[in-house]
Write a structure and sequence with these properties.
CATH class of one domain: Alpha Beta
Helix content: 25-40%
Radius of gyration: 27 Å
Distance between the termini: 46 Å
Strand content: 15-25%
Shape: globular
Bound molecules: beta-D-glucopyranose
Structural class: alpha/beta
Amino acid sequence: MKTIRNLILLVLVAAAAACGGPRPASTVGTTPDVERRVDQLLAKMTLSEKIGQMNQISAGGDPANYAEAVRGGQIGSILNEVDPVRLNEFQRIAVEESRLGIPLLVGRDVIHGFHTVFPIPLGIAATFDPALAEEGARIAALEATAQGIRWTFSPMLDIARDPRWGRMAEGSGEDTWLDARMGEALVRGYQGTQWDTTAMAACVKHFVGYGAAEGGRDYNSTFLSERQLRNVYLPPFEAGIKAGALTLMTSFNDNDGVPSTANRFILKDILRDEWGFDGLVVTDWNSMGEMISHGYGADRKEVAQEAIEAGVDMDMMTYGYISHLEEMVRAGVVKESAIDAAVRNILRVKVLLGLFEHPYVAAAAAAAVQYAPAHLDAARRTAEESAVLLKNDGVLPLDPARVRTILVTGPMADAPHDQLGTWAFDGQKEHTVTPLAALRERFPGRVTYVPGLTYSRQKRDRFDEVVAAARKADVVLVFLGEEAILSGEAHSLADLNLKGSQSELLAALKSAGKPVVATVMAGRPLTIERDLPNCGALLYAFHPGTMGGPALANLIFGDVAPSGKTPVTFLRTVGQVPMYYSHNMTGRPYRGETLLDDIEAEAGQTSLGNTSYYLDYGAYPLFPFGYGLSYTSFAYSDLALDNASYAQDGVIRASCTLTNTGAREGTEVVQVYVRDLVGSLTRPVKELKHFERVTLQAGESRRLEMEIPVSDLAFWGLDGTKKVEPGDFQLWIAGDSNSGEALSFSVR
Ligand code: BGC
């Protein structure tokens, strides 16, 4: 008897091992009750109704135009309608007139705020403040769900190391760790802590590698190895899913020849089997159909089959599933079990969101939620924290008592639509406060406005009028950059200098001999090296959103000190792309070689003796990742580790004393970087593993204790497993990725 039992056990264990072991628990937090409801509903559905749930269409305008399809159960989700009255009518048709009364899932790109627009995600990342990012996402959810939107296509977790790529604006920049921490925070913010009617499903996108598009040209191919995917591009997605993201979007790109929407390895092996994701996978807009253009399938039927077999649950705008799945199931080409699995994932999300209980919104009350004072306040604080001070010769902060006449100039000084940045579908420019408006309100009668250039690409030969105005002013505030339309989706650039005659405007302003404070609003790090000598101070504000004006006025006049840090490397010239701080250690130039020493001395930077360089532009960027000045200064001292050697399951306790050595309060983003000296693979020169914001009064010192689990040093090594490889490491605690003295430790 015992032997038979053992034999059965053995068979069971072997079977489990063959399937890769037990499946992880639900990532979306489903319950047996939810599953029961999903199963009961599924059991009642016809094949056609099931496939209808898998169909998402863009359905703006009169709901009557879609009534027949909604009533017939042929649409599971819509996007791009935001009017609460119309959305209620859409839901009424679905709930009251369709056979099973399944509500629609209503989606929208609520990317950095809904009506109240926050800084672009790259700016939010510059705050290094996940709690603030979460607060902003919660506010976006409050505003959007009040109108009936229960699903946002955000956060975008694509690592972006090429500023030519316009969508760098939409993500958290170049770093895996920062991207993951921001991603988790945004997921938590959108979805909230409970499934009430303000919960907006998050969608981690674009899965995966989309930010590595060749040449920074949007939609282009990527060639990322499995190791590169696992060590750099996948961790933010895994973090977002662990934080409970209900949905995920496939990307447009093909990686090494396989379009993401048909990529079983990433969508099944990794996402479902390794991570246990039991949420909903949606295609990007017609990304199923684009597989025909990729030459990966001959027609819509073929690509629909590819997508369903890869585990894609919902088709956004290809009409591939709705047109072909039924016939393929009937012909036995596609299994009905694949359809059932997809529909389960969709219904699970609808049940969790409480859509069956609360399909409608109080349309009349929706307006009161928009632009609430607390929302505007949070948007202002985020804009303040997101601005990065890149240069200051002492001109900032300005003393309001000393500058009587202020010249405001430049194409972004009064650009209420453009300062909102990309993806501000619902932000209304009438609610934007521009720098000009904020400064006029604060200093009535003291502001002269001469635009100099009315838009960024404008070309001018002479700037007589604005230079004459500069001569009469006590200070020149010039707002430069790029309009919203120059970054974002399908808006890649090959030249990253300030466009048009903006650099010439800045040079002309300098010739007037008055202090010049430049602010750049842009969707990416532009190459501004040639502009730095022509201003006394430069604030990089990315696109700061609705409250950008008051935030910048507060920074410039010193109510708040800048605390943002670069979430991406600023390059000297576009030819340096790609250049990012956590590049691998190379074999050349050799450590300590004279040529390298010269380049380092010239750049005032330290390379760890391990990088390659250009003859004309050297080895370094303009500003490293993590860089940013304040109106005060900080000193790091008495750096220490609690141990010289750690077990693989141990915790590194790193400490230092941080002192505010300046004359006013300020906030420092303390960053911890680690280097794995010898690995089974070549390893990055440094990797961010921890950061925190610390506010200190003038002269104040604080002992900081930071914990880094040794397991955070794990990576996917040569043998294809993820682990911490024992050996020697270095650790830095510093204010950017290029500073500080290394501490040494080992892992045994
Ligand atoms: C974008 C997605 C977006 C979708 C829906 C696509 O073009 O790539 O990020 O969510 O459109 O608007």
